Amino acid sequence: MAHRSELDALAVELAKRLQEVEAEREELGIAERVLRRLAEQDRAYTEAAGVGGLEESAGGGACGAADPASW
């Protein structure tokens, strides 16, 4: 009976942790979409203005830091 109680408690803890992970994944997805949008806006600005964008000014050109698709 004690073993069943331990398993029940573990199941509750794992369910809580799963909810936390799912919430964090959702937040990460939102942040990725925002970053993608900002990178697209920067590219559009760069093309329209004919100047270096965030990637160049932040030194991210070589590693693609401002472009989440390159991660």
From TrEMBL:
Keywords, ordered alphabetically: Coiled coil
UniProt region (Disordered), positions on chain: 49-71
Residue stretches in coiled coil: 4-41
Segments of skewed composition (Gly residues): 50-63
Entry annotated with the keyword Coiled coil: yes
Full protein name: Uncharacterized protein
Gene source species: Streptomyces viridosporus T7A
